[in-house]
Amino acid sequence: MPKKSLERYNYLELLKNKGNLQYNKNILQKKQESIIVRQRPSVLQKAEVDDFLPCKYCYKFCKKKKLYRHVKICKFKDMSEFSTGEPTRKRNKIIFPSVMLLQTENDHKQFVTEVLGTMRCDNVTSVARDDSLICSFISRLLQNHREHHLKRYISQRIRQLSKFLIILRTLVPDLRHLKDFLKTNYFVNIVQAAKKLGQYNEDLNTYTHPSTALKIGHTITQCANILKTQLMINNHHNQHRETKYR
């Protein structure tokens, strides 16, 4: 990139924002109350640290209520490797990647232990424990469902996803991890595994458990979004292009 060019300036700004993101994550882990934000609130405005989330494109911290508007006009959106080129119609699709950017490894381990420690010790649970993407999915579920009575529901979702991965392994023996299957060239295998999990009858064109096939579809979409966010953090652009389940 030539010196003093706009492209060079934007990349330098993005690099600075990534540094600020890491700084803010450290501050939040220490539970301190001073972070670097995109626009500092006035003295009259009352704002807490929890009121801010990072933009998934420029990594600047914005107020949650204004994040939706910022993402639509963010100047880094077009140049981002993670932009789909499609308008985001739901606010939760913006909030979720921002929350994932702030997730720490300690939170991840704590959340996973809460669920896996209460599940039955068998091959299905072992598959979930050894797969990093499934563990990240557990973390997301626990962040959204902190009520104690929902732990059983989360366990059921995890066992369903683990069984799905076991079926995928039988279809493609060379692959072991769920993230390896979330690529466009394995889309047919994803569909086949969903049909098998829902016990699809080709002769009657019906499912024995239609809700299972529907739920696993939603779960795979959520896992793909988690994987995209992880690749965003690690700057694995090429792998992100191959993750297209939405």
UniProtKB/TrEMBL annotation:
- Organism superkingdom: Eukaryota
Q: What is this protein called?
A: Uncharacterized protein
